[in-house]
Amino acid sequence: MHIVTLAGSPKAFSKSSSLIGYLSQRLAADAIQIQHFSVQQLHLPALLTGDFQHPSVVALQAAVAQADGLIIATPVYKASFSGVLKTILDVLPQDALAHKTVLPVASGGSLAHLLALDYALKPVLSALKAQEILSGVFATDSQIQTHAEQAVLDADLRERLDQAAAQLVHALRCRRSYVSHSHAEVAYSA
Ligand SMILES: Cc1cc2nc3c(=O)[nH]c(=O)nc-3n(C[C@H](O)[C@H](O)[C@H](O)COP(=O)(O)O)c2cc1C
């Protein structure tokens, strides 16, 4: 199984991206292949001008098309997800998330915008036709300590991320078994 991660912070070393880092380690132990994308890897003028043909955008579109699922991370900015993440989602085809499971995660300065994933990001993921959107994980800055570009996550956050990783693996396995079953039925009826 193969997932794509999208790190939606404009910062290269970022708290929300550290959630992806932790989840990736958990998922690698389940033999899930992971392909990472971040704002820094993409060509900002291409994002800002909606250049669907730019090679970095085409590479992202292809990776998303081939993925079984995605993890999308964002900081909370002005009570919503980051603007630069929106520019990334905007260059995906309108059904880019069809047949895919998505795990959204966010970090914010406080609990004030705990629901930003629910009221801001999830409707956009639905518009991109995500088949299943998991409940997601919200972390406050106080749960992510940073020292010398290393992030240390507190125990409560690690536990919630472990649960989210397990849910994602379960959803991906169910999806894989459904797809294999459907293919077998087609072969049988052919
Ligand atoms: C421009 C800006 C706007 C922010 N707006 C909010 C906000 O509305 N609510 C909130 O809880 N935190 C807000 N924060 C704090 C960030 O969400 C928080 O520090 C987050 O963990 C940063 O993640 P990152 O390191 O991945 O960029 C804001 C930070 C910045 C720089």
From TrEMBL:
<comment type="similarity">
    <text>Belongs to the SsuE family.</text>
</comment>
<dbReference type="InterPro" id="IPR005025">
    <property type="entry name" value="FMN_Rdtase-like_dom"/>
</dbReference>
<dbReference type="InterPro" id="IPR020048">
    <property type="entry name" value="NADPH-dep_FMN_reduc_SsuE"/>
</dbReference>
<dbReference type="InterPro" id="IPR051814">
    <property type="entry name" value="NAD(P)H-dep_FMN_reductase"/>
</dbReference>
<keyword id="KW-0560">Oxidoreductase</keyword>
<dbReference type="GO" id="GO:0052873">
    <property type="term" value="F:FMN reductase (NADPH) activity"/>
</dbReference>
<dbReference type="InterPro" id="IPR029039">
    <property type="entry name" value="Flavoprotein-like_sf"/>
</dbReference>
<keyword id="KW-0288">FMN</keyword>
<keyword id="KW-0285">Flavoprotein</keyword>
<dbReference type="Pfam" id="PF03358">
    <property type="entry name" value="FMN_red"/>
</dbReference>
<feature type="domain" description="NADPH-dependent FMN reductase-like">
    <location>
        <begin position="1"/>
        <end position="142"/>
    </location>
</feature>
<protein>
    <submittedName>
        <fullName>NADPH-dependent FMN reductase</fullName>
        <ecNumber>1.5.1.38</ecNumber>
    </submittedName>
</protein>
